[in-house]
Amino acid sequence: MPEFIHKPVMAAEVLAALQPVPGGRYADGTLGGAGHAASLLAASSPTGWLSGCDRDGAAIEAARARLNREFAGRFEIRRGNFADLADWVPAGSCAGVLLDLGVSSPQLDAAGRGFSFQQDGPLDMRMDDRQSLTAAELVNGASAEELAEIFWKLGGERESRRFARAMVHDRAQRQFASTRQLAELIERLSPRQGRKAHPATQVFQALRIAVNDEIGSLKLGLAAAVKLLGPGGRLAVITFHSLEDRVVKEFGRELARDYTFAGPVDVPELRQPCAPVLKWVSRKAILPGEQELRENPRSRSAQLRVLEKI
Ligand SMILES: C[S@@+](CC[C@H](N)C(=O)[O-])C[C@H]1O[C@@H](n2cnc3c(N)ncnc32)[C@H](O)[C@@H]1O
Fold this sequence. Notes:
This protein has 12 helices and 9 strands. It is an alpha/beta fold. A 7-stranded mixed β-sheet has the order 3-2-1-4-5-9-8, with helices on both faces. Strands 6-7 form a two-stranded antiparallel sheet. Helix 3 (57-71) links the parallel strand 2 and strand 3. The longest helix is centred in the N-terminal third of the chain and has 15 residues, at 57-71. Bound molecules: S-adenosylmethionine. S-adenosylmethionine binds at residues 6, 8, 29-30, 32-36, 53-56, 59, 81-83, 100, 102-104, 127, 217, 221.
């Protein structure tokens, strides 16, 4: 099995947020290389338990191998979407749930996975290779309007319409098959001219989010995570871009507020006040420290938000 190297982001901050204890049960919806999972199991030794999942088969293999070495008999791992965690982890059983969103370093670094514009590979971008939709299918099959909407809404790409029109034009001559082919088209339309970020950054981000329905999964995953938590249990979510962070903030805001059940106005006894389900552990997002930013540049866009079940 090839080595799976992913440096967990904000590992100390996640432990401080979830405060694992022996006997506690924890869920990790984004196992990756199991860096966070291993630290949760170590901190809850000798009797803490971990339920974990990942959509990516290679991550599951790497996580199982790593956890078996040190924590055999203390975890259950399944391949799948974290949106489905509540189907197999008992409701109210967890003291902590972690979602560390986005892609892992091995996913980004393996050219064959097609996530990166820096290396040539098939235009794939699937986290779960059992799903049929790939980035190539989207780029070659969606209309110019659909592509522009994806680039704008999921990537914030200002040139979304121009890029989408050019893709539809070019694919009539030759279908898009590789990451390089797509990156070169964008470089041609929008030369780098000393800009720090590669001009294809946003298009690649948007396609990845669309192919993996990341925002849809996140909304379902947050709801599932709250079901798993017992009273006082904590949910820690690490996001890597503003779109994800907005979903987490809105979800927290909604479940952390007092509200009145909106029954009919003329039947006041049906208009009952409802208590909040969650509370924020800290109002502000927690950011990586300077040392981590220096040592792991991939942590630079990370934000950690923590909620507690009431
Ligand atoms: C940033 S990495 C997690 C790294 C991990 N915390 C560690 O310490 O190694 C994100 C992982 O989440 C997985 N992932 C992303 N969205 C997912 C989803 N909806 N369901 C399950 N896994 C998902 C990816 O396949 C990837 O392996």
